[in-house]
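Supplementary Methods S3. Input chains for the assembly prediction are listed below.
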Amino acid sequence: MLNIVWSFIVVLSIICSICLGNSTGLSSAFIDSAASAVELIITLAGVICLWSGIMRIASKSGLTELFAKIFSPVLRPLFPRLDRNGEAFKYITMNLTANLLGLGNTATPLGLKAMAELQKQNGSDTASDEMVIFVVMNTASMQLLPTMLGSLRQSYGSSSPFEIIVPVWLSSGCALAVALIIALSGNRFSKRLR
Amino acid sequence: MPLFAAAIIVFGLVKRVAVFDEFTAGAKEGFATLYSIAPSVLGLVFAVGLLKTSGAVDVICNFIKPVTDFLGFPGELAPMAMLRPVSGSGSTALLVQVFDDYGPDSFAGRVASVLAGSSETTFYATAMYYGCVKIKNIRHTLIAAIAADLTAAAMSVVTVNLFFY
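Predicted structure tokens for the full assembly:
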């Protein structure tokens, strides 16, 4: 995917600069962008490492398990066919909880385990209803406290880095709702076809 | 933020976690993450740098101007919005460039922040989760996921207007 996008961007830019006649600007951008990328990576380094450290304490302290208990009743109606105490449902709640808490490093392995469990019950190369809902929830995932985003805003001089938090909740809440409505109605529609 | 960090550390202490050891282990993972994303960040910052100085961004912006104007979406965020579903590190790089060019508290900076906070790397996550269990027919997953991304893009403009202007 990125192979296509990246080469498209580079080739398009070079063609554009020739057509618009500013190829001198382009050659300086060639070098400058590499230098500014390194600057950016250094800025990111502090933020990423600090929060990875703190979030690792959170995941080792069992915060995910604690919150998973709270969220499991909410998630229950979305996966009616799954065993309430089964492995698949356990991994799904843990993954979605970890995402909600912003524990990306914890969430991914749990999500892969959840998919493996769902595949045991599915056993074909077509996605099951539960898989569709689970993956869709992951691609529209909500985060309670976007710490990385807040830190980045702060390091670029925002006067109140967390002023965007309510808009973020609203926006991702709507996105999640749209995703779930389409996923659920798609599931119902294909059931009727069968 | 400091309060949140303190709460996690205290909770860790209560649960008898070796907090400093885990912190350093986590920070090490952070460096490992950074090490692995650095080349793609460099490549994408390079590509987007070319896109901007060549004037191609203006061409694209003019091209999609009717759509972005209609939605009130800032044209300067178009590259970030387009890269967001494909690459997490790439769109973070673009987010930071928006902060650099316009400031995090500008209209564009706020919309970019909300968009970054409310969308995910759709294609990457979908490919990873289905790829690991060898699912070939993903049915309506992508339609739902892309609809969610478009909703997030539209809502980021709506909510920023609602809350700040």
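The helical segments of chain B are 2-14, 19-53, 56-71, 78-83, 88-102, 107-118, 122-132, 141-164. The first helix of chain B runs from residue 2 to 14.
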